[in-house]
Amino acid sequence: MIDISTIVSGAAGQGIHTIGYMLAKTASEAGYHVFSWQEYESRIRGGSNSYRIRISDKPVNAPLGKADIFMSLDRESKAKHLPLLKTDGILVDEEERGERVITVPFSAIAQRDFGNKLFANTVAVGALTAVLGIELASLKKVISHEFAGKGGEIVSKNLSAAAEGYKLAKRDCEGRCPWTLTKREQRYYLISGNEALALGASAAGCRFMVAYPMTPSTGIITFLSKHKDELKIFTEQAEDEIAAVNMAIGASYAGARAMTASSGGGFALMVEGISLAGMTETPLVIILAQRPAPATGLPTRTEQGDLLFAINAGHGEFPKIVFAPSDPKDAFHKIVRAFNLADKYQTPAIIMTDQFLADSYFTVENFELDKMVSKSCLVNPDKIQNYKRFQLNDTGISPRLFPGQSQHLVCCDSDEHDEYGHITEDLELRKRMVEKRLKKYELLRKEMRPPEEYHISDAGAIFVSWGSSRNAVLEVVDVLRENGAKVGAIHFTELWPLPEYEFPPEKNYYTVESNATGQLGKLLRSDYGVKVKGTINRYDGLPLDQEYIRERFENG
Amino acid sequence: MVKIEAYRSDAENQWCPGCPNFGILAALKNALVNLGKKPEEVCLVSGIGQAAKMPHYLKCNFFNGLHGRTLPVAVAINVVNPELITIVVTGDGDCYGEGGNHFLHNIRRNPNITLIVHNNQIYGLTKGQASPTTEAEDKTRLQFEGVELEPLQPLAIALLHGCSFVARGYAGDFKHLSNLLVEAISFKGFSYVDVIQPCISWGTHSVSWYREKIYKLPQEYNPRDKEEALKKSAEWGDRIPIGIIYRDDKPHRLFGDYFRKNIFDGKLTELGCPPQRLIAEMIERYR
Ligand SMILES: Cc1ncc(C[n+]2csc(CCOP(=O)(O)OP(=O)(O)O)c2C)c(N)n1
Ligand code: SF4
Ligand SMILES: [Mg+2]
Q: Which of A84, A221, A438, B175 is the most buried (most CB within 10 A)?
């Protein structure tokens, strides 16, 4: 099995993103499964960041800590990240020479042969492509495509720079680099969580996206703004997150599918709006891209620290949907589902991701567009005589129209209201309205999908996880089972209302979460009555990976 | 022909008997009737406060949202459905205090909506605390020794940020206010009317205090002169002008113009879902 991890490290602004992304695209172009993620500091220049690319002939989609190939663009980053190179790994370096080193002076070549240091990155990608044993043609194709908008001269210079790096590295590779990634016919999608969510929202018919910039959620509105002409979506940068959520609610009240996105801090500002959507029974979709908190926390790192906050967000009691997709494909389909359910139950839906899922590029073999139905639940105004926006009935789901749709008036109030939407202090009616809203919760609970089970029947120990850590958890199960351990996994992506589910008895449950206190574990105890044997937590800002989980599991 | 009865609401009115808010309600109904607008063509957006209860007292579409959050809701409604007459009814606390940031930035956006602020210089619903427009030194039910802040100058703020319709009305002058609202509602762009509305329960000034000082801008006043408008907007003391303080009828960039001119000119509700092949094609770019 092929499974090669590469780390490119360097200071912010040096272009490790370009190198990493081009290399990931090249391996994908060659027909391989690629997974790439970044860890970076919250600054525009300097510091030391890294871009990690994992290439395999099987689906991987999870990070690994150690690398087979390492390249660094400056000394500080090299000192920081070189310990991640395996002892039998290959170092690609500008100056160092040695038995396990491929020496390619990319900056000098760029300056000397192409008259500009800017080409150093392309020389470097050329070298890495050679080290991996990928054909140069795959890289050439990627370069021609990525630089297409910049004119013929830029394209041809970059092609030459790549070829030069490739040639020089190839020479050193003789007898040192064991890898050959011959071109395969397979063609996969390489896509990030943010891109998948933006496309999924659009596919669901979202026509209004408003947000205030906050890492790592900003990519979603940026993507939609860039593609607004073809997707026909209205985008706006709000003056703050409070405005953002209220604008989304206004747009939804007016009949459009609408959403907003932020990270923990901005989401905290939206909380009153979530309650407003609950009270006015307005569909609303919010993406919460988590990062380490409290407060500003670590702006560019990852964490799953907001689960209990999200499910409890909003004062008062009302139904709410919380999903946490596991990867871009799941995110794409889940946001469509979120729009549909928010529409059907006239209530807010929150999609939880994190920096890891938002920014990482995952390989997706196929999307199931044919399975995707986007269904609006607005009623037909012609069939209504005496319109009551908040009509009391068996399901708690009242007929929703939008203002200006017909002669029927659509009245909504954040105060407790009567069936027409008018403010009321009739306490008997208040009681019935509370019950009406909670009826929807009961129905919604039945719609929630149970967690995914993986090798649980013979397992004595079961990992329980949620959201973006799925692939790392399934991988550790595979690795441990190969070593004879009877382990399994239960993975949640639909978290509120908690789905109806029977945890198999007499198993040892271990929660695996990117947070310090084991928030899913708390829900397991309180809502499912499950005894949690152990918790595996990561809260240093880096994503969970198979090695980390295994180490904590085996060494208690 | 739309009749005034069309706007009659059955909801029980919670305002204090004799409150000048009734005057604003009557003037707004009258303005809508004069404009020939049917209730279903109108959408009122309000927040929380005494003023913000207005939508319950006339029959039309409404969204009575959170305290301070009227403008974001209204702007979005206007984007989704530009044909709806979208009117914000709010108080001085709701709009200039809790919602101050939205007030600032929506002036800059210039959406085609109307903003009516019931300015009673006090927090009425919460029983008499200072609002952003309460004058310095005025004593309230919370600022017992007098307000230590300078009052906000909302009309000047609007003028300085490019609002092209700035007016001040008086709740006690039905005819004048109704005409003002007709002008504001039919104006293309963000039209803003601050309405002096004495609070007879908690206000720091009596009705007669206002009545003695208020005067109508004279015929010869030129509302196209911005410098003059700035002066008038700051006139508050012995004399308080009412009328259209500033009005610029030149076509202006409206919020959402790019979208309507280049992407889609209509109600967003007509768009539905994009064709699946478009999404499929965009996903293909990732392969
Ligand atoms: C978030 C929030 N904070 C505070 C309040 C309490 N509150 C309700 S109305 C109001 C002030 C209203 O003043 P104004 O907008 O001037 O309206 P008026 O009653 O004077 O017409 C306050 C502070 C609230 N409802 N919501
Ligand atoms: S409190 Fe003041 S503003 Fe409110 S209804 Fe009574 S008089 Fe009018
Ligand atoms: Mg007030």
A: A221
Q: Which fold has domain A191-371?
A: Rossmann fold (3.40.50)
Record: contact A415-B64, CB cut-off 8 A: yes
| ipTM of the modeled complex | 0.98
Note whether A246 contacts B262, CB cutoff 8 Å: no
- The yes-or-no answer to whether A191-371 and A452-554 have a common fold is yes
Two structure tokens written together for B59: 């029959």
What distance in Å separates the CA atoms of residue A240 and residue B15, rounded to the nearest whole number? 33
Which of A231, A379, A410, A411 is the best residue to mutate to test the B interface, defined by the most B CB atoms within 10 Å of its own CB?
A411
Cβ under 8 Å to B: A residues 242-281: 242-244, 246-251, 253-256, 258, 272-273, 276, 280
Instruction: Give me the CATH code for the B4-255 domain, please.
Output: 3.40.50.970
Q: Is the dihedral of CA A95, A99, A101, A102 positive or negative?
A: positive
Per CATH, the homologous superfamily of domain A3-186 is Pyruvate-ferredoxin oxidoreductase, PFOR, domain III (3.40.920.10)
CA angle B226, B231, B233 (to 5 degrees): 90
Kindly give the distance from the C-alpha atom of residue A431 to the centroid of ligand 1, in angstroms, as a whole number: 25
Tokens of A471: 């692939």
Whether A415 contacts chain B with CB within 8 A = yes
Residue partners of B10: CB distance under 8 A and separation at least 6: none
What does pTM read for this prediction?
Answer: 0.97
Q: What backbone torsions phi and psi does residue A27 show, to the nearest 5 degrees?
A: -65, -35
Q: Does A361 touch chain B (CB under 8 A)?
A: no
Q: Is B236 in the pocket of ligand 2 (CB under 6 A)?
A: no
3-state helix, strand, coil in chain A (%, to 5): 40, 20, 35
Residue nearest to atom 6 of ligand 2 (CA): B16
Residues with CB under 6 A from ligand 1: B 48-51, 67, 91-94, 118, 120, 122-126, 131
Structural fold of domain A452-554: Rossmann fold (3.40.50)
